[in-house]
Amino acid sequence: MNLNNIPGIINKVFPIPGRFKSALSSDIAELSRMLTNAKGDRSLSYLSRPNLLTAYLYYFMPWNIYRLNHILPNLEISLNAGDIITDIGCGPLTFTSALWIARPSLREIPLEFNCMDRSNQALEAGIKFFISLCETENAKSKWKINLIKEDIDFRKTGGREITKISKEKKASLVCAVNFFNEQYERIPHNNTEKLRKTAAIATGFLLKNSAENASILTIEPGIPQSGKFISLLRGCFLEQNHKAVSPCAHNSFCPLCASGKEQRNRKQWCHFAFDAKNAPAELHRLSVNAGLPKDRLTLSYLYIKKENQLQEAKKSIRAENHADTRVISDIFRLQDDDFGCYGCSEKGLLLIKLNKIEINKIKNGNLVKSFINKNNQRDIKSGALIAGLTKE
């Protein structure tokens, strides 16, 4: 499906009476302020307010779908007929709609979605949008969608299962998109221990509500506090012998959680940024009118499989001076007129030097093979090991 069609579908499903259209831009700006700079002014039931729900549907939902379509096509998501997907804090079914768009091969598989949110209005709006999305593609959905109104506080339910979903068959895929940040956003940035405890509770919560061999997908805003939370969450899963599939290129210690000489540049955090220029023109127009123009989008995410494969994964470290590496930055110019980008590997944080031909092949988020320069030289500015791309 063409993502450019989304604003038109939204206009069709959620028409705004003429006398209220002029207020949309200011409502979007107000909701953005509440979600960022004025978190203390925000009620957890903000999507139950009609004007804010409309602002969310017209602006935040399509931008989030666009973000999700940056990573969902490449994730190792394997689902079979009858599998259950639990989406915690789903809002207007953003993940379900994004999955429908990004993975057409899943549309013919009978799947069951447990979509949970505290706002009944958001759930009802989401199912209307999803039905229209299917109609646009002239497709009859084989997906069964259960709308479940529940106000989940994972800090209280971390040690037990969610009561409103089936205990007989747990989810093969559990998703939490922009869910945990509402809980940890008020933790001071320098309180790493409290953030670590929050990540541990979140890990238990996700594991309790997923099947034995399930996958777990957590997506958060691409800001420093979220990136730090994702790194700590990853560590909690690894402690329980589960496998980090993406974006991690390894299951060793997270270089972005390191300290001292291993991470001298404290500005690094686990996140990915990408160009927004190909987003729908109507969405860009609405963003500009709300005073929120977007050139780039960011996110932090973690995809886990509940499989005890860490011993096998650690064998990859035996390849001396070579490492699978995830690119975690844009390309930038170095002082010697070469180019470089940062990468995350089992060797730690890498500064990958690139020539003019290589820069056209590398993008933020790519998985590449790299080699560490002799003598384990480090970049003075960041402390990262200096590396290059292997010739394949």
Q: Any key phrases for this structure?
A:
eight-stranded mixed beta sheet, Rossmann fold, alpha/beta, 22% strand, 2 domains, globular, five-stranded mixed β-barrel, single chain, 392 residues
Would you mind describing this structure in some detail?
With about 400 residues, the protein is an alpha/beta fold. The protein folds into two domains: about 5-310, Rossmann fold; about 320-390. The protein is about 30% helix and about 20% strand. It is built from twelve helices and 14 strands. It has helices at about 5-15, 20, 25-35, 50-70, 95-100, 120-135, 155, 180-185, 190-210, 225-240, 280-290, 310-315; strands at about 85-90, 110-115, 145-150, 170-175, 210-220, 245, 270-275, 295-305, 320-325, 330-335, 340-345, 350-355, 365-370, 385-390. Strands 1, 2, 3, 4, 5, 6, 7 and 8 form an eight-stranded mixed beta sheet that branches. It has a five-stranded mixed barrel with strand order 9-11-12-14-13. Helix 1 (about 5-15) crosses helix 6 (about 120-135) and helix 5 (about 95-100) runs parallel beside helix 6. The protein is globular, with a radius of gyration of 21 Å. Mean pLDDT is about 90; it is low at about 260-265 and about 310-320.
Entry summary:
Helices cover 32% and strands 22% of the residues. The chain has 392 residues and is of the alpha/beta class. The strands form two sheets. Strands 1, 2, 3, 4, 5, 6, 7 and 8 form an eight-stranded mixed sheet that branches.
